[in-house]
Amino acid sequence: MLKQSFKNLKIAVLSGGRSREWDVSLRSGKRVFDSLKNQGFNVFQFDTDDDLISKLKKKKIDIVYIALHGTYGEDGVIQGLLEYAGIPYTGSGVLASALAMNKVAAKNIFLANKIPTAAFALLDPFAKPKDTAERIKSFFPFPVVLKPVSEGSSFGVSIIKDKNEFEKILQKTLQEHKNCFVEEYIKGKEVTVGILGEEALPILELVPRNEFYDYDAKYSAGGTQFIIPARLSPPLYKKTQKLALAAHRALGCKGVSRVDFIISDKDHIPYITEVNTIPGMTDKSDLPAEAAHAGISFDELVVRILQSAR
């Protein structure tokens, strides 16, 4: 009945955008648009531009399905714009989106909620790279992980094994991203847990061809082996799902998210790395694969996300 009521509304799928993930967003958006169209919804596809709101208003759009990834789409910016315009949209609100996108802010919230996350240090973008490098080398064991504070699809992430290479890589990363942090390197199994509504989906284990689950591993054919359900003991499997749902709730996420972990080889603790509030919806994306394993078709997944519109 709820699905039928949505068919009387005009739905806009937002994709593309201005982030470095625009190409993946276009693919996500096209797949979502095609699904809604094939299911009989009255749906339109939009990219973002300066006249977006006037275009949505002119078309008399009732609901926006956000399929944007990265900055200006997943960070609360577009959510705030739509709220100001009074147009309901799918997924998390302004604050939850902004917190999830800012990995340092999110990690502080995880720690406050006793959700394990790797030790980290926020870097001063105005300090000399040499001084920063010496400070980090003095109290972080190597290897370390260098990450931009707010970036998606693993852009700008480096695993640095050699202390002598740290300053050079740091300088380059700061020039490109400005706000960065260093994180303890945890060797272990990479897994991801989709959250749909208030339900944790089956856990997907990721075995990337590269050193870690970077952009190439995420989106190129054969870049990663997917193992579902993840090869975890039943208690650890349940614990990881529980932590994923706790992280989703701690940030205030709504509707859908994808929560990423490293399961430490050393202590078998699931250490959360990040929460993605607008998971990819391409044919190679994690969330649809997890949903499918739970018996949820792609069309049903799209409709259930649509029903999260606030």
From TrEMBL:
What keywords were assigned to this record?
Answer: ATP-binding, Cell shape, Cell wall biogenesis/degradation, Cytoplasm, Ligase, Magnesium, Manganese, Metal-binding, Nucleotide-binding, Peptidoglycan synthesis
The UniProt record gives the binding positions of Mg(2+) 2 as: E274, N276
Superkingdom of the source?
A: Bacteria
- InterPro entries according to UniProt: ATP-grasp, ATP_grasp_subdomain_1, D-Ala_lig_Van_CS, D_ala_D_ala, Dala_Dala_lig_C, Dala_Dala_lig_N, PreATP-grasp_dom_sf
Q: Which PROSITE patterns match?
A: ATP_GRASP, DALA_DALA_LIGASE_1, DALA_DALA_LIGASE_2
Where does the record place the catalytic residues? E21, S153, S285
Q: In which pathway does it act?
A: Cell wall biogenesis; peptidoglycan biosynthesis
| Gene Ontology molecular function | ATP binding; D-alanine-D-alanine ligase activity; metal ion binding
ATP-grasp domain mapped to chain residues? 107-307
The cofactor(s) it depends on are: Mg(2+); Mn(2+)
Which terms under GO biological process does the entry name? cell wall organization; peptidoglycan biosynthetic process; regulation of cell shape
Subcellular compartments: Cytoplasm
Query: According to its UniProt record, which reaction does this protein catalyse?
Result: 2 D-alanine + ATP = D-alanyl-D-alanine + ADP + phosphate + H(+)
Q: How is the cofactor bound?
A: Binds 2 magnesium or manganese ions per subunit.
The UniProt entry, under Pfam families, shows: Dala_Dala_lig_C, Dala_Dala_lig_N
- Cellular component, GO, one term: cytoplasm
Q: State what this protein does.
A: Cell wall formation.
Q: Which family does it belong to?
A: Belongs to the D-alanine--D-alanine ligase family.
Task: Spell out the protein name for this chain.
Answer: D-alanine--D-alanine ligase
Species per Swiss-Prot/TrEMBL record:
candidate division WOR-1 bacterium RIFOXYB2_FULL_37_13
